[in-house]
Amino acid sequence: MATLKIDELDEIFWREIMLALGYDPDADYDDFSPVRRSWPQTGAPAWGINDNVLFVKIFDESGQEITRTIDTVLTDATSDINVEHGQTRVLVVSMIAYGPDSYDNLVAVKRFFATGKSTALRTNKIYIVPSSDVPRHAPEMYNAQWWERADLILRFNNLMTFEETVNAIESVDVTTLLNTKGSEVLEHHNTITKE
E strands of the chain, at which residues? Predict the structure, then answer.
């Protein structure tokens, strides 16, 4: 399995969070999906105070000890050698939910992932890191109104693999000399290197 790109990870997590919240990821939401991958560019909310909206952002977490270990497996493939390098990366899935059900929605998402209900994550070798993290209730002031908001950060381990082929040396020219004087060896070497 090749390493998943960030766009592929975005799609996998978006679909799974939609399922966790009971939405159909294949339905057409006319650009108003209840789970969104980006924030409004103008800065003002593009939803109402009573709408449930969840924003998700996925990125690699640096500084994790587990990301440094690289396993290498060599396999013989005819005359060449296949080299497969593997390491674990730690993914951070940051979610910010708005709306009257914001806190409960994040509880449902965490439960969905923590109970292993996501076959897409298992298929792609993405596994939740067990933790005591819970949603944080954090109402937000906007336009003189308090909007319900909750935040949750989950971490996942994901296997990354990199493959390469090392070509075998098929032939090597070798010259052998019998116990000759040093000056003769030097003269022979100079002749070979000048050609």
Answer: 35-36, 53-60, 71-77, 80-98, 126-128, 136-137, 140-142, 145-147, 149-166
Q: Is the dihedral of CA 101, 102, 106, 112 positive or negative?
A: positive
Residues 63-97 pLDDT 10s: 665 666 678 888 886 778 888 888 888 899 999 99
DSSP secondary structure of 55-75: EEEEEEPTT-GGGG--EEEEE
Query: How far, in Å, CA of 103 to CA of 134, rounded?
Result: 10
Query: What is the Cα–Cα distance from 92 to 4, expressed in whole angstroms?
Result: 14
Residue 1 has pLDDT above 60, yes or no: no
Indicate whether this model's pTM tops 0.85. Answer: no
- Adjacent-strand bridge partners of 8: none
**Alpha-carbon distance 51 to 70, whole Å?**
45
* CB-CB contact of 73 with 86 (8 Å): yes
Count, residues in the chain: 195
| Pairwise CA distance, residues 130 & 139, whole Å | 26
Q: What is the mean pLDDT of the chain?
A: 84
Our CA dihedral for 118, 124, 126, 127, rounded to 10 degrees, sits at 50
Alpha carbon distances (Å) from 16 to 23, 40, 116, 134, 167? 10, 22, 11, 18, 42
Cα gap 108→136, rounded to integer Å = 14
Closest CA to 57 of 76, 42, 38, 72: 38
